[in-house]
Amino acid sequence: MRRLIVIALVLGLATLAAGLIATRPSFVHGTELAGLTGDAGAGEAVFWAAGCASCHAAEGATDAARLVLAGGQRFASDFGTFVAPNISTDPVHGIGDWTLAQFVTALQNGISPEGRHYYPAFPYTAYRLAERQDLADLWAFWQTLPASDTPSLPHEVGFPFSIRRAVGAWNLLNLSDEFVVAGDLTEQQARGRYLSEALAHCAECHTPRDALGGLDRSAWMTGAPNPSGSGTIPALTPDRLRWSEADIAAYLNDGFTPDFDSAGGHMVSVIRNMAMLPEADRLAIAAYLKALPSDE
What we know:
The chain has 12 helices and 4 strands; from the N terminus they run αααββααααααββααα. It has 2 domains: about 35-175; about 185-290, Cytochrome Bc1 Complex, Chain D, domain 2, CATH 1.10.760. The strands form 2 sheets. It has a two-stranded antiparallel ribbon. The protein has a two-stranded antiparallel ribbon with strand order 3-4. Strand 3 and strand 4 form a beta hairpin. With about 300 residues, it is mainly alpha-helical. Helix 2 crosses helix 6 (about 130-140). It has helices at about 1-20, 40-50, 50-55, 100-110, 125, 130-140, 165-175, 185-200, 205, 245-255, 265-275, 280-290; strands spanning about 75, 80-85, 225, 230-235.
């Protein structure tokens, strides 16, 4: 009996050690970014494409106020309510004292400078696919943004979801270095895929999730329940969204549908972002959506 107890303890400790190793934080080091020089002008386009202001500016902010990334917006989910943090250039309450390596680590690995796992309400699973030159450009633009001394508010997440290390296990199931839409794409479609899957993270709203909150990649862009509990978010597959590419691009610019309806909810902020991009990028997103597999 003693031998069995010892064996069980050893196996338990080995399992725990393996779990801790598998879920340990992974950092991007400065040497991996050597030679990258950020361009703030190019970074502004990345900023709008990535939708940073949509979550981290104040609720309902417009114009210059959208560049004040003080946080505070609340996002309800089945796992609790997540509150967007202050990510302004303030060195105390924001991220003003971060390095480029820490910024890229957060965006692509979901890890804070202190080694804590971020919750995937922060779409690092999408930003993981971003080109690091784009992230260096984004960081250069970030330095031009105003600081805010507004303290970040804590998330409202109960046990067991409050165990941050468990997010490391979630990452093992959901972090991918591959785009979802594969195959032969035109240059325009490939650009649209990059904008949609890596930067704008469209699937975060338009794709259903599994029981653990991971995106169901087999049902990509086929629509999903609204996290608010009210209604659904529409599918973007070509069998369900039958607008022309020109119609889609126009909607992303002005928010008006071909039937003269207008965008509502969180999509209003998304369209403000998209309207800041070149027309070629909006057309590229439209071409990508038309290349999606149909929802069968």
